[in-house]
Amino acid sequence: ALTDHCYYEELGLSVPLNDFVYPVNQTDFCANVYCREDYVLMIKHCDRMQLAHGCYFTDNNYTLPYPQCCAQLVCENA
């Protein structure tokens, strides 16, 4: 492990202290990862959305960074 970094073992990812990383091309993973000053990882996933009548969710696009990788709510009548 690198000094002044947090290590996210599940992704094999080193995150600089007091900084964000936006992983891409990770299967089923769409989030940003932050390494706090006390070496704790903070992970922000996509917000939950309620499905409205006449709407649908797009698929996640894991090739894009967070939050662009999140599914989008699309409504035909909007």
Automatic annotation (TrEMBL):
Gene Ontology terms: cellular component: extracellular region
A Pfam family the protein falls into: SVWC
Highest taxon listed in the record's lineage: Eukaryota
Protein localization: Secreted
Tagged with keyword Secreted: yes
Alphabetically ordered keywords of this record: Secreted
Single domain segment(s): 6-75
Classification via InterPro entries: SVWC_dom
Keyword Ribonucleoprotein: no
Name of this chain's protein: CG15199
Organism: Drosophila busckii
Source taxonomy: Eukaryota, Metazoa, Ecdysozoa, Arthropoda, Hexapoda
